[in-house]
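Reader question, answered in our methods column.
A reader sent in the components of a multi-part assembly and asked whether the whole thing could be modeled at once rather than chain by chain. We filled in our standard form and ran it. Here is what they sent:
COMPLEX SIZE: two components
ENTRIES:
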Amino acid sequence: MSYSRFILALAVAVCGCRRTAPIAAQEVGAGLKTSETRQFSGRHRYGALSAVFLPGSNQAISSGVDEVARVWDINTGGERAHFSGTRFRFQDIALSPDGATALTPAPDATLHYWKVATGEEIRRFEGAKAIMGTVALSANGRLAAGAGQDTVIHLWEVASGKHLRQFPITAAVIRLVFHPDSQTIHSVEANGRVCSWRIDQQGPPGCAAATSEPVSQAAFSQDRQSVLIGSRFGSLILWDLRMRAEVRKLAGIEGDIVALAISASGEAALSGGSDKSVRIWNLKTGSQVGRTVGTGSYISCVAFSNDATLALFGSDRGAITLWRPR
Amino acid sequence: MPLTSESVQISASVGFDGVNRRADVFTIQQLINSRVPIPREPLQTDGTGYKQAGIFAISQILKQNMAMHIPDGRVDPGVINLRLPIPLKPLTANGRCEQATIFAIREIQWRSMGMRMPDGRVDPGGATFRFLTGTPTTSAHRVPVKGSIQIAWGAMVSASFKTKAIKIAANLGVDPDFLMSAMAFETAETFSPSVRNKKSSATGLIQFMPSTAAALGTTTQKLAHMSDVDQLDYVESYFKPHTNKLKTIEDVYMAILWPKAIGKPNSFVLFNTPQQYQPNSGLDANHDGKVTKEEAAAKVKEKLIKGKSEGFCG
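And here is the structure of the entire assembly that came back:
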């Protein structure tokens, strides 16, 4: 079987999440024609939770409820390595810009900072009282943040593992990122509140209510100028973080939005949800420009490549699928 | 000797998406066969339902399939026994979970247990298992233990489930009656960890949405495969952000349905846009095109009243 070759600048994209990072152009032979999908040759029992393209390589990593993190070869769809243990069951992942280290939440309300190549733990961050569903690494690599069910955003120093401070919030945090200046944290809460926190100040954050619907997922653009917010009712809202105003409403889906990702350029987005479909959206116009259907009852995670030519998605049945949407 | 939960156990789930260990499947097939109606001649469909033969047939169905010890021989509109069991053929007890076994489980869940969304699966200690072993209907199960705390729906769940639910309610600062009634509503009174809405994929004790499961580091698939007692940990984790904020049954239900309405007056409008209203139009009691907090929680309040009544409270 011959695979066509193409140049692909890989970005970081996370299942159920966002996050892109600067990456070197990489030649990757995914061998997929437009609109084609290829299911990887293995699955996470009881469902996939997250996945990410590893920058600067032809690999991706995924995690599932089976407490296994699998490293995939994008070219062949085969598994290159896997790490198992409770801490490898994570629903979010923040990678360092070079993709060598990862920050992930664990079921025991801790965060783990580890080497992607070996799975070796570098540091553990403790202090939260409930499971954290979202994590973030600052661009300068000095700070780690996590938040979730204990209605607190926790901040740690990466080098020492010291818990620096916490920010009280009003609801569970759905998504959390650092601003590129490493001095601000942006958060989206389950009650529709979008906030920006200055980590060197004690004052109240700048917050605004983006939606009245229960928020189910959110994805921030790489430049942190906007955030795409999905709800349990299937609506999608593009929100401007600087203006604290709605940019536009997208058509959305019928059902629960479970996974979102924004491309590095900020022009395209991926959504996945309980309608079993993965959709690609043009954020400039708000229109849907592509769609494919996954296996299982719902799409549990989606990820975007840097140039939006490749997408990765997982389902509640545990299959990980590569898709070339355009 | 009748099969009961004391004399029969299964180690893991049986049926659709179950673990389906051979010995467990064999046990469930035997339990189903013990409940399969005795084949009978079809009644004459002549409209003379008052005749002794017709009354006797209904009584037999109620007795054999609904564990009704003194069948009244009557089918009332709107009540559970209207879902008359069809005469299932006895299963071949071979320990293999084939379509016939799953079909039989679904039939029993739908027609005899009144499940709105039968999942075709029997979980250890779950509602279907308790039904098959006759546990929920035995008077011993419903007799309150002297000195123990009585809670709504306490008689319909296992002692370990009840104990854990009370502890979780205390941790969250919630009335355990409210928590139990919300779960009774969400599971159609089955308290099954695997009860699932096919359209939304919402699953389990509080109908976890896929995105909710993801935020808690799991999937609805996994939730459906755990025991009811284990799933309570996820119920607690879900409610944790609302600790000490849920003082009314309306607020407890809002934590599941529409968290933004917690602490708001009961007249607060939840759904008024077409996208929100359409799937929830059944809750609109006064048909004014809006669903208020009070209207949305009305059916949960009904569960609270029922759960505190004799036979359900325990």
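What stands out: Chain A touches chain B through 50 residues (CB under 8 Å). Confidence is low (pLDDT under 50) at residues 1-29 of chain A.
Send us your own complexes using the same form.
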